[in-house]
Amino acid sequence: MRDPADAADLLQWYDRHARDLPWRVGPSARAKGIAPDPYRIWLSEIMLQQTTVAAVKDYFRLFTERWPTVDALAAAPDAEVMAAWAGLGYYARARNLLKCARVVAEETGGVFPADHDVLLTLPGVGPYTAAAISAIAFDVPRVVVDGNVERVMARLHDEHTPLPAAKPILTAYAAALTPNARPGDYAQAVMDLGATICTPKRPACGLCPWRTSCAAWANGTAAELPKKAPKKRKPVRQGVAYLARRVDGAWLLETRPDKGLLGGMLGWPGTDWLDVEGPAPDEDPPIRAEWKTVGGEARHTFTHFHLRLVVKTALVPMDRKPHRGDFIALPDFSPSDLPTVMRKAFDLAQGR
DNA sequence: GACACGTGGCG
DNA sequence: TCGCCAAGTGT
What we know:
It catalyses: Hydrolyzes free adenine bases from 7,8-dihydro-8-oxoguanine:adenine mismatched double-stranded DNA, leaving an apurinic site. This protein is α+β, with helices and mostly antiparallel strands. The protein is built from 14 helices and eight strands. The protein binds a DNA duplex through residues 44-56, 87-93, 96, 123-129, 132, 144, 146-149, 164-165, 187-188, 191, 194-195, 200-201, 231, 233-234, 260-263, 300-304, 339-341.
């Protein structure tokens, strides 16, 4: 019989191997009584949803330097926050981030609620994030289940039920292990273990503090867990983007509607993006001009489809009025304000 | 439960 | 080149 896995063993490992992350109060600082700033924990958790630590770091530093408190963020104009988020993806997070900041600023005086059930009501805060904020920011024992925890639990118990059906089972395993002591450190410890040792591919079982408790290690099945439902293949869609530059250098852009793909983000006016199997999308240039097609196409893959974007450019006079979008002068616009697919279209038009 | 929702890195 | 994967949430 294997030893049962023990939270204390993992905490001991975490004391020696905790990663140094910009939003983290490490175990030694925590032991001295230094508490995390709930604003920074919340912000980092929203940014980390479905996103790698490496991708988040620079954005986190940028956001916290520019908006050090939830009140500062709540007071920021929508366009500035969306532009600052550009490139991170899942833009509904940025819209909900602002909504949430304004709720906290206006309804609770800029103080984050410590109550898990209140946290759950905040925009963009779901079961994982509410539990993570409770545990990490407030050191309340909550069961924190993210992709890392699912993977670690599936392996510890050699659970072969595919996700997402396995979720309740894995959550129960996680609940049984969650300690009352040091819940904040523990939550981060499991996630660190999943990110650095119990990785999706080629797990480093030889270094794992829970190895002797791990059923998948005993059975040699760790690398194939957790099982997942098969993915559907992505269809290919096509569209046209119109990049109009006014003679003074201003670019014609529009803010996309809040709902749907790239909602709330700046983008080039363009056609709908339709499946290549069907008819080509109707062309409707946003301004009367001599449009020239740029050679090649901007290719981009979203979560559920591939896009091939044809790019057309035009130079237009000062007095010409667009029927879509607005001209934005250069000091007020940087290509880095654009979501990646739109930046790719820009780069293609610039000959890059 | 299923699907929409981004992006960059890695093998 | 291509599929997989990352500290999920909202509908």
